[in-house]
Every structure is written in structure tokens, then in C-alpha cells.
Design a protein that fits this description.
This protein is mainly β. Helices cover about 0% and strands about 50% of the residues. The radius of gyration is 13 Å and the shape is globular. About 30% of the residues are buried.
Length: about 110
């Protein structure tokens, strides 16, 4: 079973940027769409951005114009570039297929605060 390990989170000031990484233990090329999800305290997990095998991206309204997902099928990596962060982006971020079929990783905490 493919395992996912997210990294790159941290504390960032409003307006700042972060690049999250997700390392998969197996081939991700067999999964057409990979995505980034987030879960804030007291809220349900939501899909924020995704990328297909041919590089087509989709971003939820909450991140439109600020978040972009990408992938490297050779390295089995998925990335999330986040710009213009605001406190509402504070959450634990996870990667998975879209729809999610893999076991969830531990996620990476993103905290946006001054």
C-alpha cells in the first residue's frame, strides 16, 4: 500500500508563502488526479487543489489565484505552492488521490498568524 508523507508546513505571517511537499512510497503515475486537502479545527476535510497526470490543475474557490498543485511522477512527489496566505488558511494539509483512496498521512500543519 502506498504511504504518503507530507512536509513543508510551518508558521507564516499573513501574506507569506509556503510550498508543501508530499512523498509517496509508490508510483503515483497510475493515479490520474492527485490532490491536496486541508482540515481546520472543528471543520470537515476539504479538497483545496488538484493536478492530473497531464498537468491540468484545479483549485477550490478558497484558494483560487493563490494555490497551485503540481506533481513529479518520476520522483513520486506532489507539491502545493501557496501564496498570499491568510489566517483562514490555517489547517493541517494532506495529500491523497482524488477521490481519496489511499490511507491518510499524518499531514503537515500550516499556521498563518502575525
Amino acid at each position: 500500500q502506498v504511504q504518503l508523507v507530507e512536509s513543508g508546513g510551518g508558521l507564516v505571517q499573513p501574506g507569506g508563502s509556503l510550498r508543501l511537499s508530499c512523498a509517496a512510497s509508490g508510483r503515483i503515475s497510475r493515479f490520474y488526479r492527485m490532490g491536496w486537502y486541508r482540515q481546520a479545527p472543528g471543520k470537515q476535510r476539504e479538497l483545496v487543489a488538484s493536478v492530473t497526470n497531464d498537468g491540468s490543475t484545479n483549485t477550490a474557490d478558497s484558494g483560487k489565484g493563490r494555490f497551485t498543485a503540481s506533481r513529479d511522477n518520476i520522483k513520486n512527489m506532489v507539491y502545493l505552492q501557496m501564496n498570499s496566505l491568510n489566517p483562514e488558511d490555517t489547517a493541517v494539509y494532506y495529500c491523497n488521490t482524488v477521490p481519496s483512496v489511499m490511507s491518510w498521512g499524518q499531514g503537515t500543519q500550516v499556521t498563518v498568524s502575525s
